[in-house]
Structure formats: structure tokens, C-alpha cells
Amino acid sequence: MKRFLLVMLVASCMLSLGSCSNMARKMSRKVKLEGVENVQLISLSQLRIDFRIMNQTAYKLQLEDAEASLYYRDVCIGTMHLKECVEVPKRTESELVETYWTVEVGNPLTLLPLVGKLRKGDLSEMWVELEVKGHGGPAPVNLSYKKMPLSEFLRTFGVDPSELMNFLN
Fold it and tell me: How far out from the chain centre does Cα 156 lie?
């Protein structure tokens, strides 16, 4: 579950840079997620994820609000919400960014079939809904993805699904 939450955070950050404007496309070439430093479960409902990001643009980047939900069939397994605004200063080579998330799992028993399928490498019937709001300099970013298959979601951001399975083993 921690790996899934990590993937969702990375994807949220990357999606916030991908708006349709030409400026955002240029900016996205100068922004790079360098890696995750730490994933810490603070409590059953709170998560802290520290990551390094490079921002060689002339603008401060802001992720103001993000919400990601994982679904299996038509059941929402869990949702995570960004607790506070995240900022990355302009012209930084490697900035450590701490993010805090609230995690909501409606019924922990719904995790059992999901974990079983992930261990088998089967991502079918799993999908993600994601909403991101922020700014890439002066350009506002408001993105919404509905019913995106988990395999497509992972592929879009270059994440190998086997990483999720390795985490569970």
C-alpha cells in the first residue's frame, strides 16, 4: 500500500507539470523527480513522503491540492489527500520536499483481493481517479483523470508494475 501511495504522489507531481499550454511543456523539460528519499507511515491515516526534485525553471512550483483514489472493480479501496501545499523553489538542483498525506481506507477487508491480484501480477479491474490543482509559475494547473486503468497510469510515468509486487513480497 505504501508503494501505491508513493506512485500516486509521484504521478500527481508529474501531472501537475503537464498542462496543455506551451509554457508548461517547456517547463516540464526542466523539472525532474530525482527520487524518493523516505516513505513513512506516521499513523494508520497519515503518511509522509520525502522526495528530491529538480526545478531549473524561473518559477516556483506549487502543488496546492491533490487527491488520488484506487478502485478495484467498482469499489474504492482507498483515497489519499495532500494535507498542505507543496512548493519547490525556482532554479534548484536538488530540493528535498516533504509531503504529508491523509489516507482513507473505507474497509480494510477490501485490500485482500487487491493484494492477491497484485502478487500475481494482475492489474486488471484496477483503476485510478486523480485530481490535481496547482501552479507551474503563472500557469494554473487543474487536471482530472477518471477511470484510468492502473496499468496505464503506471506506464504513463515509467513505473514498472513489478515494483508494486516486489513491495508486497
Answer: 12
What are the distances in angstroms from CA 62 to CA 7, 88, 146?
Answer: 19, 7, 23
pLDDT at 161: 72
Helix 2-15 to helix 161-168 angle (10° resolution) is 150
Residue reference for cell 489519499: 80
Give me the residue label for grid cell 507543496. Answer: 86
Query: Which grid cell is 159?
Result: 513505473
Q: What CA–CA distance (Å, rounded) separates 92 from 78?
A: 34
10-residue block means of pLDDT along the chain (169 residues)? 48 48 64 74 88 86 91 91 93 89 89 84 90 85 88 69 63
Global confidence as pTM: 0.71
Cα–Cα nearest to 151, from 165, 137, 140, 132:
165
Contacts of 129 (CB under 8 A, 6+ apart): 68, 69, 71, 145, 146, 147, 148
Q: Cell 504529508, residue?
A: 100
